[in-house]
């Protein structure tokens, strides 16, 4: 009789422990804090103002980790020390994945500010003269955008069989105005405006350098799908509750209404 009671007690104890473990595992599966990698640009500001409030209503806490350079944010995302970042386009991500052997994927396409041709000295394309200097970004994805913009402006001709997102200096087939095209770090271009006649600058760099009032728009980018900004996550996290909550927030009516109210100057290009 004693043995039966002992066995019954042991079975009950195991059942309690089993339920407790199951409860613990279920709880741990639900993530309530989203860690976002932040750099100084308008995409993170848009997230803070229009997306974070929606996520907070859904019960999520937002933790921000600051990075001085975006590549650091991508490295942290790949390593899993942050959950998401919002400041890159798919073309850049593909190159990063290829070079770093990572598995980042786009979660949702967000509003984007185009990379465009500007000048702090001139106001029109007609001001172009032979031998002028044009500064453009040196990283491959943004350099490709710059060459496409210069081709759209009619200043150079490029190979027609090369994708616009893959253009490089070697794909220039004609430079009739003998332009001196200087590739440099995107962060450097706003600091050397006086040394350049024209410059191609990504929208995020214009914002972070606060040079909107110092430059004139010459030619706006024809934004390709691969160049639209995305929220990025690791591949394994795409279908998690928190990732889908971010996606839902960007695609919500509340977010759409915010953009209608705060995009009267059409600075933002909405997802296609």
Brief synopsis:
The protein is of the alpha/beta class and 272 residues long. Helices cover 38% and strands 21% of the residues.
Strand ordering within the main sheet: 2-1-3-12-4
Head-to-tail CA distance between termini: 74 Å
Number of helices, where a helix is a run of at least 4 consecutive DSSP H or I residues: 8
User: What is the subunit organization of this protein?
Assistant: single chain
The share of residues in helices is 25-40%
**Cα radius of gyration in angstroms:** 25 Å
Name given to the CATH architecture of the largest domain: 3-Layer(aba) Sandwich
Protein name: Lipoprotein
Subcellular location: Membrane
Signal peptide: 1-21
InterPro entries: Lipoprotein_NlpA
Walkthrough of the structure:
By secondary structure, the chain is α/β, with parallel strands linked by helices. The chain has two domains: 31-112 and 227-261, Periplasmic binding protein-like II (D-Maltodextrin-Binding Protein, domain 2, 3-Layer(aba) Sandwich), CATH 3.40.190.10; 116-222, D-Maltodextrin-Binding Protein, domain 2 (3-Layer(aba) Sandwich). Helix content is 38%, strand content 21%. The protein contains eight helices and twelve strands. The chain has helices at 2-29, 42-57, 70-79, 90-100, 140-152, 203-209, 241-250, 253-261; strands spanning 33-38, 61-66, 84-89, 104-109, 116-119, 133-137, 157-158, 172-174, 180-184, 198-201, 216-219, 229-234. The N and C termini lie far apart (74 Å).
């Amino acid at each position: 009789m004693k043995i039966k009671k002992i066995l019954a007690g042991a079975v009950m104890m195991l059942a309690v422990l089993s339920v407790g473990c199951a409860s613990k595992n279920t709880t741990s599966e639900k993530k309530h804090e989203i860690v976002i990698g932040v750099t100084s640009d308008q995409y993170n500001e848009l997230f803070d103002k229009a997306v974070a409030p929606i996520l907070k209503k859904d019960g999520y806490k937002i933790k921000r980790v600051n990075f001085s350079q975006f590549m650091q944010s991508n490295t942290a995302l790949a390593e899993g020390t942050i959950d998401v970042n919002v400041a890159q386009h798919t073309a850049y991500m593909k190159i990063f994945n290829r070079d770093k052997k990572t598995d980042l994927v786009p979660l949702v396409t967000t509003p984007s500010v185009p990379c465009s041709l500007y000048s702090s000295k001139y106001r029109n394309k007609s001001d172009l003269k032979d031998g002028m200097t044009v500064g453009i970004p040196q990283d491959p994805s943004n350099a490709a955008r710059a060459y496409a913009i210069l081709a759209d402006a009619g200043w150079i001709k490029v190979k027609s069989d090369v994708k616009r997102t893959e253009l490089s200096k070697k794909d220039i087939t004609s430079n009739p105005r003998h332009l001196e095209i200087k590739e440099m770090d995107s962060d450097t271009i706003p600091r050397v405006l006086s040394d350049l006649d024209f410059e191609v600058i990504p929208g995020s760099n214009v914002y972070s350098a606060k040079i909107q009032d110092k430059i004139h728009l010459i030619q706006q980018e024809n934004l390709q799908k691969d160049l639209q900004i995305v929220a990025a996550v690791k591949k394994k996290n795409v279908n998690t509750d928190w990732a889908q909550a971010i996606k839902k927030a960007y695609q919500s009516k509340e977010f759409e209404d915010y953009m209608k109210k705060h995009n009267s100057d059409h600075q933002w290009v909405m997802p296609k």
